[in-house]
Design goal:
Blueprint lengths: L9 E5 L4 E3 L2 E3 L2 E4 L2 E3 L2 E3 L2 E4 L4 E3 L2 E3 L1 E4 L2 E3 L2 E9 L4 E3 L2 E8 L2
Parallel strand pairs: 1-4, 2-5, 3-6, 4-7, 5-8, 6-9, 7-10, 8-11, 9-12, 10-12, 11-13, 12-14
Length: 100
């Protein structure tokens, strides 16, 4: 895998059943299986699991969305929408991939 598409060091996991309100700033990557109401900022990648939810703005390098996003996604690299993902809002990215 080339350096532009690889996921960096995953150093933060927000588990199922967790609800966070406010702004989250993460150095490196984040995996979300819970719910965030607010802004999510990472310097690398965001992975939203199939049960993960975000209501708010996302600013990342790369994102893999498997769950629900209500809001704007700004990615300088690539956004991947998995088959069962739901995005209500805008996506601004250099590359977009939508899985069957």
């Amino acid at each position: 895998m080339d350096d532009n598409n690889r996921v960096g060091d995953l150093n933060t996991i927000i588990g199922k059943g967790t609800v966070i309100e406010g702004t989250i700033r993460i150095q490196n990557s984040l995996r979300l299986d819970g719910k965030v109401i607010g802004q999510v900022l990472t310097t690398d990648s965001l992975i939203v699991g199939k049960e993960g939810e975000i209501e708010g703005e996302i600013r990342v390098k790369n994102a893999v969305i498997g769950g629900l996003v209500k809001g704007q996604i700004f990615a300088s690299g690539k956004v991947v929408l998995e088959a069962r993902s739901v995005v209500t809002g805008e996506i601004k990215t250099a590359k977009l991939a939508i899985n069957d």
